[in-house]
Amino acid sequence: MPRLAVWAFGALLPFAAWAADEPAEYRMDEFRAPVPATLAGATVVGPETAYDLWQTGQVAFVDVLPQAPKPAGLPEGTIWHEKKRNSIPGTIWLPNVGYGALAESYHAYFREGLSKATSGDMDHPVLFFCLEDCWMSWNAAKRALEYGYTTVYWLPEGTDGWALWDYPLEEVKPEPEPK
């Protein structure tokens, strides 16, 4: 079948047709892969619904895109530039909290970041995202549910889907990570 025909056929299939099954546990590797269409306990939203929630100003948006650390042992005088992140305006960026296993310092970092984003209210709505087909946001949303957050949204298309709708993006800086 020609490539265009395959793409056209695939474009007609619902998202769930190529989504992964929802696992019982956290995703531990291959974080850039098709994600499930569901997350037990959370509400899965698309970019249009996320935009509506964003416009209310009543939902905390949490970006969990990972960020590579500055390499240790760089020669003196080496210039290191952090990769810029364009994200949803008003977002708190908590990099590296979407891995399947977290060190205790990152659990504390994640909890502190969520508390900051929600003013310490476990019932405050919170929406997690990363990029399209990124398990980091699925893992982070699942973890927030386990921490006791009651109103959790997950945007599987992340900033890729948000940008596709031409919704605004702005450069964000990550919350300082634990050392």
Automatic annotation (TrEMBL):
Stretch forming the signal peptide: 1-19
Q: Which InterPro entries match?
A: PQQ_CXXCW, Rhodanese-like_dom, Rhodanese-like_dom_sf
Q: Does the keyword Signal apply?
A: yes
Domain named Rhodanese: residues: 110-171
Q: Which UniProt keywords apply?
A: Signal
Q: Does the keyword Signal apply?
A: yes
Show the Gene3D superfamilies listed in the entry: Rhodanese-like domain
Q: What is this protein called?
A: PQQ-dependent catabolism-associated CXXCW motif protein
